[in-house]
Amino acid sequence: MIIVMRTGAGKEQIENVIEKVHSFGLRTHPIYGVQKTVIGIVGDDKTRIVEKMHGMPGVEDIIPILQPYKFAGREAHPEDTVIALGDVRIGGEDVVVMAGPCAVEGEEMLLQTARRVKSAGARVLRGGAYKPRTSPYSFQGLGEEALKYLAEAREETGLLVITEVTDPRNVELVSRYADILQVGARNMQNFALLTEVGKSGHPAMLKRGPSSTVKDLLLAAEYVIIEGNRDVILCERGITTFETYTRNTLDLSAVPVIKDISHLPVIVDPAHATGRTHLVEPMALAAIAAGADGIIVEVHPDPDSALCDGPQALTLTQFDSMMGKVRSIAGIVGRGL
Amino acid sequence: MIIVMRTGAGKEQIENVIEKVHSFGLRTHPIYGVQKTVIGIVGDDKTRIVEKMHGMPGVEDIIPILQPYKFAGREAHPEDTVIALGDVRIGGEDVVVMAGPCAVEGEEMLLQTARRVKSAGARVLRGGAYKPRTSPYSFQGLGEEALKYLAEAREETGLLVITEVTDPRNVELVSRYADILQVGARNMQNFALLTEVGKSGHPAMLKRGPSSTVKDLLLAAEYVIIEGNRDVILCERGITTFETYTRNTLDLSAVPVIKDISHLPVIVDPAHATGRTHLVEPMALAAIAAGADGIIVEVHPDPDSALCDGPQALTLTQFDSMMGKVRSIAGIVGRGL
Amino acid sequence: MIIVMRTGAGKEQIENVIEKVHSFGLRTHPIYGVQKTVIGIVGDDKTRIVEKMHGMPGVEDIIPILQPYKFAGREAHPEDTVIALGDVRIGGEDVVVMAGPCAVEGEEMLLQTARRVKSAGARVLRGGAYKPRTSPYSFQGLGEEALKYLAEAREETGLLVITEVTDPRNVELVSRYADILQVGARNMQNFALLTEVGKSGHPAMLKRGPSSTVKDLLLAAEYVIIEGNRDVILCERGITTFETYTRNTLDLSAVPVIKDISHLPVIVDPAHATGRTHLVEPMALAAIAAGADGIIVEVHPDPDSALCDGPQALTLTQFDSMMGKVRSIAGIVGRGL
Amino acid sequence: MIIVMRTGAGKEQIENVIEKVHSFGLRTHPIYGVQKTVIGIVGDDKTRIVEKMHGMPGVEDIIPILQPYKFAGREAHPEDTVIALGDVRIGGEDVVVMAGPCAVEGEEMLLQTARRVKSAGARVLRGGAYKPRTSPYSFQGLGEEALKYLAEAREETGLLVITEVTDPRNVELVSRYADILQVGARNMQNFALLTEVGKSGHPAMLKRGPSSTVKDLLLAAEYVIIEGNRDVILCERGITTFETYTRNTLDLSAVPVIKDISHLPVIVDPAHATGRTHLVEPMALAAIAAGADGIIVEVHPDPDSALCDGPQALTLTQFDSMMGKVRSIAGIVGRGL
């Protein structure tokens, strides 16, 4: 922590600040510059108590030096985290493709989709059972019925299953069916939910909140990890900006940024950010080129009739075609599929 | 709903779109312009199924005409909603001030603060029992113990109590102690929580999410209202922008905007948005001048030692001084305090 | 400047950084913390050369301590700047209202508006002669003809004249007619224009760019001031955000922020930010309550027929009515009109 | 244009609106829905006069249907624009790489860089002669001297030259030396400059303003094109968002969006958006994967000593290495280098 004193802060103000820091059992290293005095602070400030000194007379700014997360950062864990589920390794050498419908709408459509994405190279089946929707009048998902269909589809195809959990009271139920629990963007700072997901011990994928910085995302992961669950996947899915042509703005630079400061795997969702089918393939390829550990995309046998997010789902044929290019791009950045 | 066809869309494409709309039992009014054809749609499209036609050949855009909310908008309910709690009327003629510490830290500090804010003209006591914090290492609140102190303070002072609920499993418990349930900004789209709050029948205050439009906020209110609970207060507390000097950017124009399109009361939180004490008073006065139905501010007997958000809390003396000006500004815009 | 070394940065990396800093003639104060080393730098780094060390091995971050502006900040000039023009003092005790049409459309409409806003208490007449427009197909202003009408209106009413300059080649011409040169939001970082405005010695008002931080705005002012022109007014007019209901989001907290860190007067434009007539009055009142030194608003005798920005202009009657409340609010925050 | 009337708008209000539209010589097609009336407008509204009816009683919204640009959109010009300069074709089958130092610092460093980027496959040499800088205290470029060095480097290497023009008074001078005029992000809505660039007839590259939508960028291009200059290249270089880890957020989805709605070539600048060397290569590869027609990157023989933007420049070796991968990715999306 560095405390920056205002230009013109008096000797007494500086001494009061130093004394206050000492009262917390921390040491100070004041540097008297030509215009300003800054006070470096050394010691273990677990509760970040120094940040509370913001209002003291003469204090201009308090600048944290250490990262606010302990377990999600690469400093604490220099090697990449690889999450092994059966023979799938998320964050490992191969990129992993997760595909399936936005919402599970029925048994047959799910199975048909699952078979097809499996044969095209997907390793994980996605499908919503509980759908958080901005409007209460939109389709909210089939609930446990959908979970059963997902489990069946896994049985038949060998795909892993990822599905969203939206309520701390459902974590136990969803964990019975799913291989990976997804926490949606709108729940990224639903701390009650994150804590339950952490306690479940189940691998989890956290989607970045639309107004969350990369640092906020790592702090959300920290909520899961401190419960003892280190199998956390991060997912870039677009942030809120002023551009209205796309629903959100996919922040692909977050991929190399996260790989630099964290050891956790990073997956990209190119469809929710853009909200338009014709943008899915280019952004999926770009994600792999940027170094993502995988992508999650919506595939629907008949997007026009989808009960949820139809405009952004790929047809089975479009998915097949995209997968060929994903494989090639992965090869160029040194990875398999 | 209006469907805009692409320039150059062929006759067959237009006919296919019209036929599809008819298949949903809706009527069409095509307008053939010089460059483009637009198709007006008339009828009751409850499920907004027309929005799913986005991917059809020749379709450029689909523009909704009706507001997506039914109960939160002024169209359905032209008169202002006034929430009467004892002799306090939120959304009525008088502006209402809610004040108290960020977090309830103990019995004595809470009582001391409650007495003082009461005598300065506040009508509602705020104080966090459950604190959602970006970092898992920050103080998370005293829980039920804090709820008990709040109830005591109400007993003694006659102030109403507002406190945050963060978990659907706690709604029942918090409802036993609080007069108004607060849903925090990070939980504005936690639909499981909104639904429980709606079912509780308790008056609720929804804080606008940092990346939520005014329309999203009204849709969140809709989640509460459709459970039968119409006593919803909206709270502007700042949105996420690129400006870093303040923590968030307080969007005061949201106040007259919401008053125009909704009948629900609007409260402004000037402290969380700005994150700096010296900005609280000017923005509180500006909020009242802009037409807010009230403000919610943090007051702490000793902000420097606060366990939560100290830098933005007012001292008791600062609060007293601000209240005099709040009263005067309220008078100019035709309201009491 | 503070250089933060990465966790795990080796002794040699630290020494290389220190040596490099010394090679610029600056002194270093390393602080060896438990996890990280930070290096405080003391000395006069006029060219901010230390910032270029970002890429050196082991360097995690470089944090500036001094403000990047010299003349626009309050540190260099603790007293408020008051710009005296005739008997009008901008930034002084009274708030100043600037009013008039978006664009000067003709002699008669301008005179009629000028007389009326004068009698309601405005001190400065606004009116565009050169209009920067997002679309080349929109009305671009009458040019020098408009400047002549503005000068006539000043002659008759005694109002000061403010008008926008959009091209460095026109600064001399516009200076002949206007009392205050306005630099529009889209030109806030048009440095060729800022430099000419600075050289003109004419009082200038800089509108904040829609994606500019307060710091960027002060740096733009710095461009004018270093040419020897200290009569700079800053204008908050809304920033770009995700909210679409209003055209931009008026950042009223920028008012007390700027008053804290700068000595320059601050004017608020409530109309361009909101883009809707019914929001102009509430935001104008809020601006005065927040401590602005004045407001600039659009008034048109017949907004429906205005050639530019009609939807946000007040009628003469609406302006009269607003001015009464502006005067009252000004009184409460200790100012006249 | 579609006019949406408010719910509850009376018969007389609707008739007044229709009459007003007719008075402009336009035809109306009212659609009377269950809740709302919308009025479709047909005819040639060149001056967009209908937009000015926003304030009329009963009008809720006015929705434009036609794109605001005429020449920059794909509707007017379905085939891709390819700009041929010597044997380089921008927007053609091959992707084009533009590389060189941020600022031209001297003859020798420029030549050395030019030779190296040429041999690695670049076709265009970039280098700033006039540098717009946020701070007036930063290096502003060598001016005409730099232009001469650029021309020399072209002479020797056969590379084309792109350099920025910042002042309408310099367009003629810069055109004498450069093959492509660059208009920087901060000048994207400097309409005086755009008009001069248009008149010059010189190929131009417009960088997207940091708070500009894709639509605003196309309108800026329109300013150049209506002067008769159709050789306009668009450049995505990052937009302003709340994320602070990167300087701006590179909006790669803008690439397929622009390719869809416009015929103009799109280049991506991965360095200015990210501001960090280690992000340049991943984002450059992602840009090509997303369908960009080329990239523009900063290369410096010794980034640590660069007078401008050192932290984001590649070394010559890093550039060589990146170019191999650029070529491979280009191949996968069906293009050469």
Outline the structure in words.
- The structure is a homotetramer of 337-residue chains.
- Chain A is of the alpha/beta class.
- Chain A has helices at residues 11-23, 107-120, 144-157, 171-177, 191-200, 214-225, 254-261, 270-274, 277-289, 316-332; strands spanning 2-5, 27-32, 37-42, 59-63, 83-85, 88-90, 96-100, 124-126, 160-164, 180-183, 204-207, 232-236, 266-268, 294-298.
- Chain A starts with a strand and ends in a 5-residue tail after the last helix.
- Chain A is elongated and about 75 Å long.
- Chain A is built from 10 helices and 14 strands.
- In chain A, the strands form 3 sheets. An 8-stranded parallel barrel of chain A has the order 7-8-9-10-11-12-13-14, surrounded by 7 helices. A 4-stranded antiparallel sheet of chain A has the order 2-3-1-4, with helices on one face.
- Chains in contact: A-B, A-C, A-D, B-C, B-D, C-D.
In short:
The structure is a homotetramer of 337-residue chains. By secondary structure, chain A is α/β, with parallel strands linked by helices.
